[in-house]
């Protein structure tokens, strides 16, 4: 069973605290070294804080029940936090590039980086643990906001490792240009991360269908539990945050009573909800004589 909304809100609130701690550690590492690559890493952590705040607000809105103005609920609010995060990532990448390019043109030596490296490494370890928790909870709760936050934090971990390698290489080899060069690579990496988040979120906002594996399972459940029905056609699905909306037409014999048709509908809904708790099912019942007779799923 997916985590309750209160649990996901608690995780999101914890994410803000962790992001603030990591931000402080990374700026401390930059202050200790003067490394522009570590500075770029710290700048990205500002985005982590903003993203964590956006995710928390989005989850609060998404948890609201359906109302007269939003009869399908508020679950799509989670996608907006991911889109906002993508925009912030672009701004961070621009800031990193503005700082790194002048240093790349006029490289400067990195001063005594080792203590700063250890501080940055500790921040990265904390980020790795928290990103794993965010991704695990996001998948279990099917939360786009938590998944977006988790993926971004995990990309931050990968970026930090690359930055640390570059800083150490610049110090050991004396090739000072490696430091700003790694900073520019950081900018490109987070731009790619931002593009992926925006792409996935736009898919949700555009009512993209479920993936082929999930649709195949839906078809199998309808077939397994559709005894008494003749056909299911016009199956349509879409995501809205943690919710999945499923619609289809159910063809029954023209002589079947409303009560019997309703029993089949209840059985199908129960079977679907047993595997996918956060769903909304709409079934249009048709008598055999009025059916379109295509897209057969249940025989």
From TrEMBL:
Q: Which GO terms describe its molecular function?
A: cadmium ion transmembrane transporter activity; ferrous iron transmembrane transporter activity; zinc efflux antiporter activity
Domain Cation efflux protein cytoplasmic stretches: 211-287
Alphabetic keyword roster: Cell membrane, Membrane, Transmembrane, Transmembrane helix, Transport
Quote the cellular component terms of the Gene Ontology held in the record. Answer: plasma membrane
Identify the residues that the record assigns to the Cation efflux protein transmembrane domain, covering every copy.
15-206
Major subcellular location class: membrane
Q: Which domain of life is it from?
A: Bacteria
Q: Which residues cross the membrane?
A: 7-30, 36-59, 79-97, 117-136, 157-175
The listed locations are: Cell membrane
Q: NCBIfam families of this UniProt entry?
A: CDF
Into which family does the record put it? Belongs to the cation diffusion facilitator (CDF) transporter (TC 2.A.4) family.
Q: PANTHER family attached here?
A: MITOCHONDRIAL METAL TRANSPORTER 1-RELATED
Protein name, per record: Cadmium transporter
Question: What is the organism field in this record?
Answer: Deinococcus metalli
Q: Tell me the classification of the organism that encodes this protein.
A: Bacteria, Thermotogati, Deinococcota, Deinococci, Deinococcales
């Amino acid at each position: 069973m997916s985590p309750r909304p209160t649990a996901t809100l608690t995780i999101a609130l914890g994410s803000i605290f962790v992001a603030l701690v990591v931000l402080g550690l990374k700026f401390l590492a930059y202050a200790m070294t003067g490394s522009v690559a570590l500075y770029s890493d710290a700048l990205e952590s500002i985005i982590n804080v903003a993203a964590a705040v956006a995710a928390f607000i989005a989850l609060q809105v998404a948890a609201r029940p359906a109302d007269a103005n939003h009869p399908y609920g508020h679950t799509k609010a989670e996608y907006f936090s991911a889109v906002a995060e993508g925009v912030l990532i672009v701004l961070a990448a621009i800031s990193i590039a503005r700082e790194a390019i002048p240093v790349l043109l006029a490289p400067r030596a990195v001063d005594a980086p080792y203590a700063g490296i250890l501080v940055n490494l500790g921040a990265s370890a904390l980020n790795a643990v928290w990103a794993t928790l965010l991704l695990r909870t996001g998948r279990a709760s099917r939360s786009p906001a938590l998944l977006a936050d988790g993926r971004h934090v995990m990309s931050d971990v990968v970026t930090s490792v690359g930055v640390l390698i570059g800083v150490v290489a610049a110090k050991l080899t004396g090739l000072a240009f490696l430091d700003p060069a790694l900073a520019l690579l950081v900018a490109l990496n987070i731009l790619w991360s931002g593009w992926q988040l925006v792409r996935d979120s736009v898919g949700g906002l555009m009512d993209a269908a479920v993936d082929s594996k999930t649709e195949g399972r839906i078809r199998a459940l309808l077939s397994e539990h559709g005894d008494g029905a003749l056909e299911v056609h016009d199956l349509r699905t879409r995501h809205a945050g943690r919710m999945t909306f499923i619609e289809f037409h159910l063809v029954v014999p023209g002589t079947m009573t409303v009560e019997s048709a309703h029993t089949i509908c209840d059985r199908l809904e129960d079977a679907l909800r047993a595997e996918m708790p956060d769903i909304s099912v709409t079934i249009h019942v048709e008598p055999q004589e009025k059916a379109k007779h295509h897209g057969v799923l249940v025989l």
